[in-house]
């Protein structure tokens, strides 16, 4: 996916969702291909250095070693055969291809490639996008693992994590059900969130640390130039909730806020939205540093209720 996100404000959210569904279908092996490249480059480095493979040169053994499905392993092996580093011997067994039967010298340790990033973020973002269709979607572990080029055990762990985040429900004998986005649910969450975060701000006031507030302010300073992807620091909210010291407020966000936290992070992938989020964070933090509690309360309330592209269509209608 391109670092530059399409602006959500250029068309309504349901048009956007339709485009997302097409994108996900067409981009089926985007993550898998990065894993394929990693496996191929890692094996190539070992083969060129003359090192023995840490596992048997079989598809099953390699898939187990890299903790992926057979799909990216087959693709990586096919490329290594084409490049002359591997060959198929008797009974189609994989063997190392060595010109003239000579073993290459291992004068130094091969430089292994960097492993691909954890696919959790890609999968979580895809599922949040799909949830915006408003319809329940059922996921099968085998199909989903194949789609992302990872093993079933790896995808199962990720799906369990996402279930804990409130994104999925596990349905016996049917697989995993994606929880659909509901406009009214988000409005209800925002209403309760606003009340609880304002209460957290009130409780945290005598315990706020100036150095920490200044650190958070610096983290929310936008870069001076460039059009690259921005990473919004959301720890201001966690800081207020934790500093407040109210276990019931903390419990609400731990239990109910996980899906919406993923949704808000997904929204911030749009550069304009991210810049506005950072500006609003700075406004809150500046008021807190000045001990202007009424301004901080007003800025926090506006921030919680504003800047949600997924609500733009309904707000206009």
Strand residue content: 5-15%
- Compute the average pLDDT: 80
Structural class: mainly alpha
This entry's quaternary arrangement is single chain
Which fold name is given in CATH as the topology of one domain?
Four Helix Bundle (Hemerythrin (Met), subunit A)
Helix share, percent: 55-70%
Largest sheet: 3 strands, antiparallel
Stretches with pLDDT under 50, minimum 5 residues: 1-33, 313-317
Strand order of the largest sheet: 3-5-4
Order of helices and strands: HHHHEEHEHHEEHHHHHHHH
Q: What's the β-strand tally?
A: 5
Looking at the overall shape, the CATH architecture of one domain is Up-down Bundle
Distance between the termini: 31 Å
Shape field: elongated
The value of Rg in angstroms is 25 Å
CATH class of one domain: Mainly Alpha
Number of alpha- plus pi-helical segments:
15
Keywords: DNA-binding, Transcription, Transcription regulation
GO molecular function: DNA binding
Protein name: Colanic acid/biofilm transcriptional regulator
Pfam families: FCD
Q: What labels describe this entry?
A:
Four Helix Bundle (Hemerythrin (Met), subunit A), 3-stranded antiparallel beta sheet, disordered N terminus, 317 residues, two-stranded antiparallel ribbon, mainly alpha, 59% helix, 15 helices
Report on this model:
This protein is 59% helix and 5% strand. The chain has 317 residues and is mainly alpha-helical. The longest helix is centred in the middle third of the chain and has 22 residues, at 183-204. It is built from 15 helices and 5 strands. The two termini are 31 Å apart. It has helices spanning 13-26, 30-49, 59-66, 70-82, 120-131, 141-148, 152-164, 183-204, 210-219, 235-244, 247-256, 258-267, 271-289, 293-305, 312-316; strands at 86-88, 94-96, 137-139, 168-171, 175-178. It has a domain at 183-316: Four Helix Bundle (Hemerythrin (Met), subunit A) (Up-down Bundle), CATH 1.20.120. Residues 188-306 form the GntR C-terminal domain. Residues 104-120 have a biased composition (Basic and acidic residues).
